[in-house]
Amino acid sequence: MLARATPFLLVDLELLTDNIRAMARLAADRGLALRPHVKTHKCTQVGRLQKEAGAVGLTVATVAEAEVFAAAGFDDLFIAYPLWVDPAKGHRIRDLATRAGVRVGIDSLEGARALAAQVPGCPVLIEVDSGQHRSGVQPASAGVLAECSQRAGLDVRGLFTFPGHSYAPGAAATVAAEEAATLRTAVESLAQRGIEAHVVSGGSTPSVAEADAEVLTEIRPGVYPFGDAQQWELMTTTPGRIALTCVATVVSRAGGNVVLDAGSKALGADRPGYASGYGRLLDHPDARVVLLAEHHAVVTWDTSPLPTLGSRLRVVPNHVCTAVNLADELVLRDGSSWPVAARGANT
Amino acid sequence: MLARATPFLLVDLELLTDNIRAMARLAADRGLALRPHVKTHKCTQVGRLQKEAGAVGLTVATVAEAEVFAAAGFDDLFIAYPLWVDPAKGHRIRDLATRAGVRVGIDSLEGARALAAQVPGCPVLIEVDSGQHRSGVQPASAGVLAECSQRAGLDVRGLFTFPGHSYAPGAAATVAAEEAATLRTAVESLAQRGIEAHVVSGGSTPSVAEADAEVLTEIRPGVYPFGDAQQWELMTTTPGRIALTCVATVVSRAGGNVVLDAGSKALGADRPGYASGYGRLLDHPDARVVLLAEHHAVVTWDTSPLPTLGSRLRVVPNHVCTAVNLADELVLRDGSSWPVAARGANT
């Protein structure tokens, strides 16, 4: 593997392209628009592959991410977040709107009014809570918020939700059904106020294969171009399809375990309750990262002999979105690299 | 609070200076050299305050961190890590050594030989495991490794350990005693081979007040300039001494909780088993971050009324080292900022 200093993120372009095409086919087969969430890769080159494969536009989490992608020429961006828009943020959104089509999420009347004061006529989607209990209104309240938002001067295009509770073993089908039921109630709630939901947007990487195309019009999966150890353990990908790994060097075996130089500052510290460790090894499925410090991953090994000091191994981060956000670039197998252009774009 | 877009990291310079001076006094009172670990702040301005307060030199985790601090004029750096030194890394260490005094950690004969081949005569400290079981040799084996390292052509200066298992409630005194016993055994193991441990280095922020000055010569705490929610919950700091917070905006209350725009990409996802949540609120000690997504912190509130949408709150990250590594700058109360110069310096 490339002589570059470890740790670094290595991308397999062939697998990446396969994953991007497979999701585009899934969306096309179901008659769903695909609007991938770029928070996962923060990389304009990956965004371009997604567009080329048929994505209708992109999803971002922040105004700063939208600014990076607009500057690179992307023109149909949805900020899937209930922004609080003060004058400074309003200025940035108006500026974005001159360069790219921008939609914004809302989940409160106060938020809608603040947005409308800054960006009159801004296209919005009402966020509904489909069971993750993070943000979003209850579906039966979507109509009231939509009507008030229209009155405040916003252009209500429809609804969105993030079924994030799909990140649990065996939950995908149940959560997709819950998502569909929530969105149906919300569509009806808008209809009762005479408002049509032109866009009904949902979908997470684990649940997207079960997304209900009768109510949804659009899906916004993020992780699928790369996959990660969470998806592996949720069985929504297989090791052979994982397109991003963190290449790390064995630096210690002094305690009888393998210690790698990729810690929480390279992999991210994410460890959901269902995960079997802090990451997996692509080529050693029985190994587990059992302790993660900032620059150490302590790995319990499988039955094969311990790798020698100085060996390089491919670690699959638990959560690829946070791992990518720790890196300045993604390295391809030919040694070239792509900048993580929206790294740290939190505002 | 400053009109800057949230989330951002806010540093209270007065508290920072107080914390830096208090640790310097503790070290001086005990007759211990203080070599702070800069992985926490990655900021040359903070390093300078530490040096001005009496630090003998600095500790870093990676060659890349050492390069940043050497470029800023710091001249006595200890890379407290069992580096695997290939020719490329050897070149960088030799280059560093021309600009700054550099010591390197080792915990294996193979590692020592690889280092010696690249950097003949390199000053080293032998790493011993004092109970965290991350890296480091058993203390009784330190003498053999020290002797072999000398034969390989390295300059063995002494020993180091990181008592990281001090990160548990009530563990500080026990762990400091374990650290001292380990180091005593290791010093004796070197002595049996006729090697004197000039440097005996240990100490973590939670355990440092209990460090045994009869065996240790040096301490390397990292977190103490800022403090964080881990230290707060371990009762090794108090909220009134915490010098760094993440300023975040209330973006949603739709689900009955407070949702802030600082998620795992601003705070880090660290959550040790003893932590009561994913972070604390400095001004609301009963509030808890119960769910952390990439750009959402869901906070259960205390008995006071929920803050209004658009309010700004100060979040105390669980682990300040990973939070700082996600930011490009630290913002001071006067609106100026310091770059996180060694952000992402993982290699």
Overview of this structure, please?
The first copy, chain A, is an alpha/beta fold. The first copy, chain A, folds into two domains: 37-221, Alpha-Beta Barrel (TIM Barrel); 230-339, D-serine dehydratase-like domain (Lyase, Ornithine Decarboxylase, Chain A, domain 1, Beta Barrel). Helix content of chain A is 30%, strand content 22%. Chain A is built from ten helices and 17 strands. Chain A has helices at residues 13-30, 44-52, 63-71, 87-99, 109-118, 142-152, 172-192, 229-233, 264-267, 320-324; strands at residues 8-11, 33-34, 58-60, 76-82, 101-106, 123-127, 155-160, 199-202, 218-219, 244-252, 258-260, 279-281, 288-292, 297-300, 312-317, 329-332, 337-339. In chain A, the strands form two sheets. In chain A, strands 1, 10, 11, 12, 13, 14, 15, 16 and 17 form a nine-stranded mixed β-sheet that branches. Chain A has an eight-stranded parallel β-sheet with strand order 2-9-8-7-6-5-4-3, covered by helices on one side. In chain A, helix 3 runs parallel beside helix 4 (87-99), helix 5 (109-118) packs parallel to helix 6 (142-152) and helix 6 crosses helix 7. The longest helix of chain A is centred in the middle third of the chain and has 21 residues, at 172-192. Chain A is elongated, with a radius of gyration of 21 Å. The model of chain A has no long low-confidence stretch (mean pLDDT 97). Chains A and B meet through helix 5, strand 10 and helix 9 of A and helix 5, strand 10 and helix 9 of B.
